[in-house]
Structure formats: structure tokens, C-alpha cells
Amino acid sequence: MPPRGFPVARGRAHLRNCLEKLKVLVPLGPETSRHTTLGLLTKAKRFIKIGQLALDGDEQFAANLLVYV
């Protein structure tokens, strides 16, 4: 029988793995050497929004937003 905290630990490990993959996909910028989970998720959300705007045909607006990522 696994220890009581086993599912929680496995979930945390999975979350950590997903966040590491997200760091590779999202341009983070050089402002800090260590990024928080909230900061990473916020930048990923903004990055996705900019991508959606570019796909919708608003490239100029997306390019202006990209400066702030």
C-alpha cells in the first residue's frame, strides 16, 4: 500500500513537470533568474492571447502587445 501522501506528491511532481515544459514554450524575458508559478502562468496567458490576436488577423495590435510580454 502506498504512503498516504503518495497521490499528492505525484500530483505536485506532475505540476512541476508541466511548469518546466511551459517555461520552454513561453518567452520569459531576462528580468529575473527565478520565475514564480503565478508569474509564469500570467505570462503564458498573455502569450496565448497575443497568439490568438495574431491568428484573428490583428497582427499590428498583437505586435504592439508583444513588447509587453
From TrEMBL:
Q: Which UniProt keywords apply?
A: DNA-binding, Nucleus, Transcription, Transcription regulation
Keyword Acetylation appears in the UniProt entry: no
Q: Where in the cell is it found?
A: Nucleus
The residues covered by the BHLH domain are: 12-49
Give the organism, scientific name. Melipona bicolor
- Lineage start: Eukaryota, Metazoa, Ecdysozoa, Arthropoda, Hexapoda
Database matches in PANTHER family: MAD-LIKE PROTEIN 1 (PTHR11969:SF54), MAX DIMERIZATION, MAD (PTHR11969)
The organism's place on the tree of life at top rank: Eukaryota
> Would you name any one GO CC term?
nucleus
InterPro entries (UniProt xref): bHLH_dom, HLH_DNA-bd_sf
| Record field: transmembrane | none
Gene3D superfamilies reported in the protein's UniProt record:
Helix-loop-helix DNA-binding domain (4.10.280.10)
This protein is called what? BHLH domain-containing protein
The yes or no answer to whether the keyword DNA-binding is present is: yes
